[in-house]
Amino acid sequence: MGILGEFFNSAAICQSMNPRPQQRAFFNTGNTKQVSFRIEQLKRLKQGILKHQDAIVKAAKADLGRPEFEAYFEIGVLGELNRALKQLKSWVKPKQVATSLDQFPATAWIVPEPLGIVLIIGPWNYPFQLMFSPLIGAIAAGNCALLKPSELAPHTSQVVAQLIQDTFEPAYIAVVEGGVETSQQLLAEKFDYIFFTGGTRVGKIVMEAAAKNITPVTLELGGKNPCIVDTDVRLDYTAKRIAWGKFINAGQTCAAPDYLLVDQRIKSDLLKNLQHSIDEFFGDNPVKSPDYARIINEKHFSRLLPFLENGKVIVGGEAIKEKRYIAPTILDQVRWDDPVMQEEIFGPILPVLVYDNLEEAIAKINARPKPLALYFFSRNQQKQAKVLQSTSSGGVCLNDTVMQYATWGLPFGGVGESGIGAYHGKSSFDTFSHYKSVLKKSFWLDLSWRYAPYKGKLGFLKKVITGS
Ligand code: NAD
After folding, report:
1. How far apart are the first and last CA of the chain?
2. Which of 15, 115, 159, 431 is surrounded by the fewest CB atoms within 10 Å?
3. Active-site entry in 254, 344, 397, 417
């Protein structure tokens, strides 16, 4: 390489080491470290969301054919924002920790500090909420942020960009709209944190890119969430809660039950109840229902279509390409090796598998990657304890579906292939903070037990080391 080549190469490296100079300069002013500043920005964000709420609802309708009721889920982030406003002053408080005698005289504490500039990349299925929910944590923790909404929900992406532009200085919080290439360009820069929500395949790409700069990540991914149904249940409520969690947003919910694993003895009664719930929710022709969403795009429609050939359709099964409509569908007689059981479905298709005893169901689940959510319907407390103890998943909800997501005191995130890290409420603040350990010594005394000569000091050292 000639001198010029080397110059340009090192210039490129410098750029990748020092991206977003305006945001870096903004962060370096220290303003975002002031709690009063963070509170003011959260209040601005709240006003921005309230001001744009009609546009948010309209965009969710345009992108996903969302019923208005479900479009309001997007604005549910306001609840989280209000909680952050109420609790931020207690979250930022340094936490004192005890020190041992050998440190005397000393005090020690842990103090949260912002990470710097964070990149938030979002998916299309809850395209507003999944951008702003992490952003609330990033602001609360005192960071600058860059948002990359999903290109597959273009109407929402535009609203996100407009809202941020209307609300914040671009050096503080900005949006970069675009698709895969844009995302890859951003990932080539050095951020202080990357918060990614999306599929497991892309999650691996994000983690690989982050590793190059040792950038910490949260990966909020997907997977196949099992829903086990025992005999000891109230069937009508069970069916309603499963049908609701599966068919909101036409099954395009990361925490939706992916498949049913039902005790053989109650299968036919459960299926009758599920059919009844679907009829009750969407009528006998769901394509006419104002309360049922559409598949995001043709690619996903075509991906889902072959699944309708698996097992036996006992409810639904209709699909209309021009409308990107797939009816709420239940597939019976599905086998573990059918294509519908090989990947996250992420659509309104519910395969049903059976088990004879709970151990068998647990073994089937444990033979697969750890899911984001696991659902277990049963009144039996011993069985509940058994499922909790012998399975691993991001979260568990007993006797309902998806509602754990909306329980703000519960951190939300995956484990294993369903993700790394968690957020919501205080955990969002923790995610976007570095907890710095501080030890402060004093000058008024200097215990000599650690200094040479060591003669006669070993006894004390042994006590220090063993903590006795
Ligand atoms: P996706 O992984 O395809 O895309 C997510 C984001 O990554 C988008 O902004 C996209 O532009 C970007 N991207 C796509 N390909 C890329 C590449 N090769 N390199 C860099 N960036 C790339 O996910 P999706 O289809 O938008 O969303 C659906 C998935 O997200 C499902 O698996 C679902 O379970 C998961 N999800 C998880 C959660 C959660 O909280 N755990 C929430 C919603 C969705």
Report:
1. 62
2. 15
3. 254
